[in-house]
Amino acid sequence: MTGALAMMPSTSSPYPLLAPPTCSSRLPPLRCFVGLRWSAPRIQVREYPDAVAGIAKGAGGRGGRFRAPASSISQPCSRTIIITNEHVQNADFPPNYSKRVKKPFPIPVLELRRRAKERAKKAEGKPKRSLPPPKNGMLIKRLIPVAYKVYNARILLINNLKRLMKVIPVKGCKHCSEIHVGSVGHPFRTCKGMSSDKRRGQHDWGGTLVEAVFVPVEAYHLEDRLGKRIPHDQRFAVPRIPALVELCIQAGVNLPEYPTKRRRKPIIKIGKNEFVDANEDDLPDPEPYKLEHPILEELNDNEIIAPASPEEIVALAEETLEAWEVVRDGALKLMKGYAVRVCGYCPEVHIGASGHKARNCGAFKHQQRNGQHGWQAAVLDDLIPPRYVWHLPESGEELQRDLKSFYGQAPAIVEICVQAGAKVPEKYKATMRLDIGIPTSLREAEMVV
Asked: Which regions form coiled coils (predicted)?
């Protein structure tokens, strides 16, 4: 059936009308079908005031439309039956982009150009408005408490992870960056490190540190975020600190060991890319900021004490998982106010409107770019990599290589907290595949449709 077929009410029609489909052969035929959906529909029926229209799928992917009087199929009904799946049971794992391909832009370039044209069109003929913070050198006041909260949550997260890793074993491959949460490493042959061809991709598991779970992405510390870009010859003179710490400093966190310039008046633009600082001599001496919060300190390895009781382990896991969510959510809020850049070819991150000029990119075909980075807008996973690992089933059985497609994944921090007794957050259930039954043998797995 390739075209639309109109069926008028006639007793001599050579095409008899079929009864509407039912949800089960054991149930009586349904009387009203409006927006009924199922996994692999063959016929979709919708009811109208005077007729019922449907779409039938035939062989070869071809389909057609039909329309018939409502009296011949169903009785008028005022109810609407909608069968949908609001909670996704399973979701695909995050994509692993090839190192030979540039990262995709968070917003397509064509969309960025369209928005720029719209802004230029709206600003045409209007007086120029003053720059908003943080472009004018001032801080966004509403984000200062968020910055302190994120900074303290990061310290709390690191300290709690060191304690949890005393009771929850975490393995790391000796030749690549793969990690696994469990007493025994997974059997999947995914190693791409040194001499992996001799081991046929088999991992060589050993101990690991907290830095493998919570990856410390570093960035240059800027004493003046509106100053000149860091040149290549000064790449070793500028200190490098965790990128999340640098973002918190630029958002208002004051750390004595990392001084930064704080302006109390907006800058004065004298050109497209030139400005001068406003005169602040008429202002009184600066007072301690009222919204400053106490700063937590990171514990040394010799000060870490493992939790003693199962109840303490569960409470520590819940606190760690909450700190992880605070860090992620707070960092996302800060990134909406303060620009964060990432190289499209390598993991280099820069906190600022424009990336630095250090030519230290060693990614694919960096010789053609003379080592320069391809800066673009960063996403949250560039600043805080989640490090997905395989999720162990609740039964506690070891993972089998032949049943790889039945297992789920979760961020390493989430997996550690879940194995310690914390409740699984809703946002991670889809990738962990908790509702999938795992076969007990390979023969049973081959029977799965």
From this structure: none
- Between the two ends of the chain, the Cα-to-Cα distance in Å is 30
**Which is it for strands 5-6 and 63-69: parallel, antiparallel or unpaired?**
parallel
- Report the helix count and the strand count for the chain, using DSSP H and E: 9, 16
Distance of CA 98 to the CA centre of its chain: 18
User: CB–CB of 291/254 below 8 Å?
Assistant: no
Residue spans of alpha helices (H) in 276-426: 310-337, 380-383, 412-419
CB neighbourhood size of 288 (10 A): 6
- pLDDT at position 75 is 52
Helix H or strand E encompassing 409: strand 409-411
Question: Please, where are the H alpha helices in 124-164?
Answer: 144-164
Alpha helices in 171-267 (DSSP H): 210-213, 243-250
Place of tokens 């791409």: 192
The DSSP line for 44-82 is EEEE-SSEEEEEEE-GGG-EEEEEEEGGGT---------
Give the residue among 334, 336, 367, 339 at the shortest CA–CA distance from 351. Answer: 339
CA 283 to chain centre: 44
Write the DSSP symbol of residue 376: E
Which pLDDT score is estimated for 285? 79
pTM: 0.78
Beta-strand (E) ranges in 205-273? 205-206, 218-220, 240-242, 268-269
Give the DSSP letter of residue 60: G
| Residue 404 contacts residue 148 (beta carbons within 8 Å) | no
- For residue range 74-98, what is the model confidence (pLDDT) as tens digits? 455 555 565 555 556 788 888 888 8
Residues found in the chain:
449
Cα separations (Å) of 68 from 13, 47, 65, 197?
11, 10, 10, 65
CA 262 – CA 259 distance, rounded (Å)? 9
Task: Tell me the two tokens of residue 243.
Answer: 């990128």
pLDDT tens for 130-159 read 889 999 999 999 999 999 999 999 999 999
Alpha-carbon radius of gyration of the chain: 30
Phi, psi of 335 (to 5 degrees): -70, -25
Q: Coil, strand or helix: which one is 405?
A: helix
Spell out, as residue ranges, where the chain has pLDDT lower than 70: 1-88, 288-292, 449
**If DSSP codes are grouped into helix, strand and coil, which group holds residue 75?**
coil
